[in-house]
Fold each of these.
Amino acid sequence: MPSGTIKVNKPPPMPIVGPPPKSTKYKGVKHTIMVMSGKGGVGKSTVAVNMAVTLAQQGLKVGVIDADINGPDDPKMLGVDKEKVYADESGISPVDTKYGVKVISMGFLLPTEETAVVWRGALRHKAIQQFIEDVVWKDMDYVILDLPPGTGDEALSISQIVPEVEGVVIVITPQDVALLDARKAINFADQMKIKVLGVIENMSGFVCPHCGEISYIFKTGGGEKAAKDHNVPFLGRIPLSQDVVETADEGVPIVTRNEKMKEIFSEIVSKITQKTSA
Ligand SMILES: Nc1ncnc2c1ncn2[C@@H]1O[C@H](COP(=O)(O)OP(=O)(O)O)[C@@H](O)[C@H]1O
Ligand SMILES: [Mg+2]
């Protein structure tokens, strides 16, 4: 070593401590609830969004994670489909909606509404992990996870990433096949050791737009039966209503427009909060 050079002792290498325990970054959320179903198109996103808005109307801080990477519908349903997300050193900020709910979705990251996400399971897992861990969710009373259809990869990913999912709400429609799917969702939750907060029967009866009378196009009572058979709570019925479709397209959650739906969702949500607030 040439004279005059100061010898600097390098610090010892950091010990390798292994992967951090699950979800160390997902902090400050009191209750995490997953909305799932055995199949698609039964109204999970409708239920997740309106449940979230109902909770926010009660003065609670609520976030929605749209875990449907291939079919992200929540931004549109919450009227923020033109927004983008921002990130800084502290993490990714969820998008604020005018209904007091914050939301994160793959929809905010796509160049256009028509862009298809063609990702394999591992990438979808990564995206969901980021929505959970890298988004600033602190000080939330409730975070609602809106799942893609079925009991596949995403549901599994979430139960691996967030050990503190407090419960699952299962949405079904009244037909027999849907009941079969509901059983799958209940069994999935059992296997994952996640509490089933209850079953909601959506599209249960049709509200006539003219006279307001409800006709039962499909059968009814199936959700209640599935809940009873599996010894899980029944949370309520949501009728099929033209208003739901119209308001969803306009980005207005139905509970902010329709008194009857507001009442129905309030009852459902109060059953859920009774089971989760500790
Ligand atoms: N109770 C309802 N009455 C009328 N339309 C509904 C109702 N629930 C859901 N829908 C409509 O059905 C479609 C599928 O609902 P969505 O919530 O996207 O289901 P999922 O998330 O399970 O795929 C949407 O167009 C939605 O507006
Ligand atoms: Mg959906």
Amino acid sequence: MHEATIAKSILEIVSKQIARTPGALRALQVHVVAGQFRNVDRESLEFAFDSLKMFDQRTSGCELHLEMPSATALCKESQHAYHPCYQQAYCCPLCGSGIGKLISGEELDVVNVSLETVLHEEQKDHARVVR
Ligand SMILES: [Zn+2]
């Protein structure tokens, strides 16, 4: 299952951050951005994450904050930013030129991990979930 693999990768990144951070006790929250074209099912991912996180007490209290922005492309002809969709064959709907350059939609990133440490909360950021 696609979402279980993603959840596992997210938790691996969180665990690495814990291991790497001096005095880290546990993860509080992980912020993930999954672009539209990654076809991530929110409910399945949240379910997989909440199931798998229980295997480690340092991640069992970690909340998944999932952001799923819609895709954006830049028109080849006129630099229109547009929302590429299947119905338009991913072409620019304003001038009908071909498939533009995809600006966002394929990201699948951990953008932030909040940790509780012996001293304070610490923020660590940016790691790609799946390369
Ligand atoms: Zn255009």
